[in-house]
Amino acid sequence: TSGQHTLCYEQQIYLIAGAFLSRHSLPKNDCLALSALRNLFPSTVMNARLVSVAWALNFARAFYLPGVAPREYESGEKVELKVNKLTSVRTQLPYDYYSHKFCKPHGGVQATAENLGEFLSGDRIENSPYLLFMRMDEYCKVLCQTKLNAHNILQFKRSIDEWYHHNWIVDNIPAASVIDTESFVTTSYSRGFPVGYYDRVSGKHFLYNHANIVIEYHEAVPGGNRIVGFYVEPFSVQHEFVGGVSWDGKDTTPALQTCSTAEPMDLNQAKDHALALTKSIEVLFTYDIVWKPSNIKWASRWDIYLSMDNAVPKKVHWFSIVNSLLIVFCLSGMIAIILTRNLRRDISQYNRLPTDEDPESEISTSEETGWKLVHQDVFRPPTTCPMFLCVFIGGGVQVLVMALLTIAFAAVGFISPANRGSLMFVMLVLFALMGTFAGYHCARLYKTFKGQHWQRATAATALLFPGGSFLVFVSLDLALASYKDSTGAVPITSMVALLALWLGISVPLVFLGAYLGFRKEPIEFPAKYSNIPRPIPMPPWYLSSAFTVTTGGILPFGACFVELFFILSSMWMDQYYYVFGFTFLVFAILLITCAEITIVFLYFQLCAEDYRWWWRTFLTSGSTAAYVFVYSSLYFTKLESNLPITYLLYFGYMLIICFGIFLFTGTTGFYAALWFNIVIFGSIKVD
Fold first, then answer.
1. Is the pLDDT of residue 261 over 80?
2. Phi (first) and psi of residue 520, to 5 degrees
3. For residue 117, what are the contacts with CB-CB under 8 A and spacing of at least 6?
4. Quick one: how far is CA 400 from the chain centroid?
């Protein structure tokens, strides 16, 4: 390379390395920073290795958390404030922001480009009429004046009763809500800020029409300001003009006596002039803008949102981990006893040749322990719906691999909260790409069962879970479409994209996996099954299928229910959830618990000479989903909703989620049982 390019690459290495050390992004043309970094990394020779390192580090910047590249504003530069959907945790029915009579931008409402995940989440990000300029404080700014008729008043009252909230965005971070009352000040980093409030004493609804906007900035470099905090403190103010004059909303705005142009609004100014929603009123929307310097660096600006200002201590998550580990240790101890004592004793007795002195004792010992007696039947293919078992196993593998990869990517920081809808988008894409695993496992297991209709099995694998989920989703979408101005209904273009992702990518990959699976040899078992099935004795009640399936999901559910509460709160209460490191641990413990509880029940089932384990092991661990659904039904009471659409949305989506949990937990237990049978029956000498 030329000397000029060499210097450029050398500077790039120093600046990138310094950025990683200081958790700053790279400054622009900062010679002082370059000189300081030269002392840390003394080097004057640039070779090809250093160039490659520079490109590698530069690529790593693409994953600079929490997501997007920083933007620097000069003093006086315009900062855009965007608005998102109006949301309610009670109805779960989002509405377009401008479906209510708020002030609209002068140039018209313009939507921001969104990804598929944002559309599926109901996000509709649009511009707003608020004018913000970096580091320029302004007070008592008039936005617009609008007249509310009876329909508008009723709409606002209903939104207040149903706890609807604004969701504003500045520089890609959401607005935190600051609610000031005479008793206390509450800051909330989720859900946005409310539309208004209801006073039970007076029996009136009050509309928030004044916003005290507080934006924190960090001056990373001279002249380069980065936004690191965004707060909105709403007030309800019945504005009055000086001298009691009126304003038609067109000419110059007269001076207001209910707010000051020298200082921001506070509770003392607003508490005696609250704006009550009566039959027909004129509403004047105003705002203050206050800029505050902050020491928070741009890379850490999402921390307080994700932790919700430490509203949920990490000790709670650690309690969940410890609770889960105790369950795993207990189950592991039981399995260790089975493997080290019972099984080792049984296998040694089975493999020991009978002597002439005591041949009958060996025979009687073998008859007392019954699991060897079913060695000619334990690998007999299931007689009840073997194809559907293979289909369920294939779907379970697909969901399991998708969930593992999604949680792993989120845990290492590749799925950023700054990219709205990215989590759902990644889940959909990974599910489609994991179709190969579904087809492969279904086809190979079906071939092991000597099935003849592999085309039907493959098609059922490709269509069962995604097709059922799509039908439920379309039904819910049609129900949402009946609500005017709701953003919950997915546009037809997004629906076409979903179909293309499913039918164009997932289905062909399932058939590709099935082709590879059928080309593989069937699973080899250590014992062959006989032509005549062995009669099964009547088992005791605690080894019946109903009992083991019902109780099999209790311990796996107990291993994850604490973390499940926070996940449900994130889904339905608009709270942030970004402790995916804990999620990965709990998920791993859940899989281990499912495998262990299935092995324990399987051992006792085989000892009772019952070899019908294929479906039972799948259902034993898969019953975890039933407990999750029951728990989610109890959680639904927190929403305090009485709308039919909320019931449909909540239980419809939870049905899809629980069916996915049923598939991957059942698959985990099934493969654990298959491995256990292969190991123990491969360890004995079979005549």
1. yes
2. -75, 155
3. 420, 421, 422, 423, 424, 425, 426, 428
4. 15
pLDDT digits (tens, 9 = 90+) for 631-669: 999 999 888 888 899 999 999 999 999 999 999 999 999
- Which residues is 194 bridged to in the sheet? 165
Burial of 130 (0-12, 13-18, 19+ CB in 10 A): buried
Q: Which two tokens stand for residue 404?
A: 């593992």
Q: Do 668 and 621 touch, CB atoms closer than 8 A?
A: yes
CA torsion through residues 190, 196, 202, 204, sign: negative
Residues in the chain, total: 687
Q: Which helix (H) or strand (E) holds 496?
A: helix 492-501
Helices (H) and strands (E) in the chain, counts: 22, 14
Task: Report whether 414 contacts 112 (CB < 8 A).
Answer: no
Give the pLDDT of residue 328.
79
Average of per-residue pLDDT across 408-432: 86
Q: What is the mean pLDDT of residues 391-399?
A: 96
Query: Exposed e or buried b for every residue in 504-523, given b needs 16+ CB within 10 A?
Result: eebbebbbebbeebbeeeee
Taking only the tens place, the pLDDT of each residue in 155-199 is 999 999 999 999 999 998 899 888 776 666 777 877 789 999 999
Evaluate if residue 314 carries a pLDDT over 70.
no
Query: What is the per-residue DSSP string for 500-535?
Result: HHIIIIIHHHHHHHHHHHHHSPPPP-SSPPPSSPPP
Characterize 135-156 residue by residue with b for buried, 16 or more Cβ atoms within 10 angstroms of its Cβ, and e for exposed.
Answer: beebbbbbbebbebeeebbebb
The average confidence (pLDDT) of the chain is 82
**The pLDDT value given to residue 205:** 94
Q: At what angle do helices 386-411 and 644-681 cross, to 10 degrees?
A: 110
Q: Are 187 and 234 in contact (CB under 8 A)?
A: no
**Nearest 10 degrees: CA dihedral of 303, 305, 310, 311?**
-170
Residue 201 predicted with pLDDT over 50:
yes
Q: Is the dihedral of CA 197, 199, 203, 206 positive or negative?
A: negative
